[in-house]
Specification:
2 domains; 341 residues; binds flavin-adenine dinucleotide; Rossmann fold
């Protein structure tokens, strides 16, 4: 097996986040000599956190200049680590920070990059001498490809949530400092701004996804719209089940069309072809028709259920494991009461 460099950036508290630990687990599964390259304001704690993983070498670019996510500094740090480590395979978690910087680094090194990989493994799980292959989805998770490359270094960004993170006890790691002259920057990070919403509703690690469709804001049997109650039922369920909230495109688009809206939703919640593809063990769709451009975002939701008044909706056509042909207001009132009991 070729030598592997795991590139990871530290979190604000100096630790290594879950995506980094997942990429570490993948790197270890390949069996080559592993070098870890760390970037951050301080890196010793992160190195200690994974010292017992069996990595042969720890390299680090450390300093305040490398604390914030920023293309110029991240790319300079990653390039220096890649050159110092001199490994053929460079594996990194597909965080927004690395997704922005590492394709440019692969270009600088004359290598190639693959993003949104869901695994990196030896072909056919074969032993020594076999080539590593990447799996990734194309055309909005409709087709899965297995591919390999001959160019080196081969930089692979592994999507978070695909493998169990590495766990182990902390120990003392010997870290080799790699010095990098911080490049001139024009970008200053002044803080983080979360999407406008009165509470955090997107929980990627939740076991359960609740999807709200446009039906919640449509006229109901009594001829009236009940958006306020809809919001209260949805948020009540989220709190009780600690679920994540997804939406159909129609519902989140309504804010721009002057129709009744649910204030707990933004375009960040949109699931589907032009939205997200979250990974949850279970999903419950409510008041959503289940059209293909929406359901394609459910590719990685293992067990799917839907509540719709229409027995002929999209979910009934092989897209859900269970369809409750019922009024979602009534069902969710009852579910929330049961959860509260
Ligand atoms: C290029 C392209 C990309 C797209 N990308 C996306 C995407 O990323 N994500 C996405 O979601 N869509 C996407 N769409 C739009 C998609 O095709 C649908 O228009 C959209 O998903 C419909 O949203 P909906 O099911 O919430 O609304 P509607 O189609 O209006 O359905 C509302 C449903 O609510 C039900 N309902 C009403 N009241 C109740 C009640 N009391 N109880 C139970 N059920 C009730 C109705 O029976 C109906 O089935 C895309 C479309 C295109 C063309």
């Amino acid at each position: 097996m070729e030598n592997i460099l795991l590139l990871a950036h530290t979190e604000a508290d100096g630790s290594l986040g879950k995506p980094g630990l997942e990429a570490l687990a993948t790197a270890l599964s390949l069996g080559g000599a592993l070098t870890v390259g760390l970037v951050g304001a301080s890196t010793q704690a992160a190195a200690d956190q994974i010292a017992a993983s069996g990595a042969a070498r720890f390299l680090a670019v450390t300093g305040e200049s490398f604390a914030q996510p920023r293309y110029a500094t991240d790319a300079a740090a990653a390039e220096a680590l890649c050159r110092a480590a001199d490994c053929q395979i460079v594996l990194a978690p597909g965080t927004s920070r690395w997704a922005r910087a590492l394709p440019g680094v692969a270009y600088r090194l004359g290598g190639r990059v693959d993003t949104h990989a869901t695994s990196l493994a030896l072909a056919n799980g074969a032993p020594a001498g076999s080539v590593p292959v990447v799996t990734r989805w194309f055309y909005r998770q409709r087709m899965e490809a297995v591919l390999s490359r001959t160019q080196r270094p081969w930089v692979v960004l592994l999507d978070p949530g695909c493998v169990a993170p590495w766990t182990g006890t902390a120990a003392a790691a010997a870290v080799e400092a790699v010095s990098v002259e911080p490049p001139a920057t024009r970008t200053t990070v002044t803080g983080y701004r979360a999407p406008k919403s009165d509470e955090q509703t997107i929980r990627p690690d939740a076991k359960m996804l609740l999807v709200a469709g446009a039906g919640w804001t449509k006229k109901q049997a009594d001829g009236a719209v009940h958006a306020a109650e809809a919001e209260q039922l949805i948020l009540g369920f989220l709190r009780k089940a600690q679920a994540s909230l997804g939406s159909s495109k129609s519902l989140v688009d309504q804010s721009g069309e002057g129709e009744a809206v649910l204030t707990c939703l933004t375009h960040m919640n949109q699931v589907g072809q032009t939205g997200s593809t979250p990974r949850h063990a279970k999903g419950l769709s409510t008041c959503c028709h289940g059209e293909e451009p929406h359901v394609v975002g459910w590719r990685f939701v293992n067990q799917r259920r839907a509540i719709n008044l229409d027995a002929g909706c999209g979910w009934a056509r092989g897209k859900a494991d269970v369809l409750y042909v019922a009024d979602a207001f009534e069902v969710m009132r009852r579910v929330n009461a049961l959860l509260g009991a």
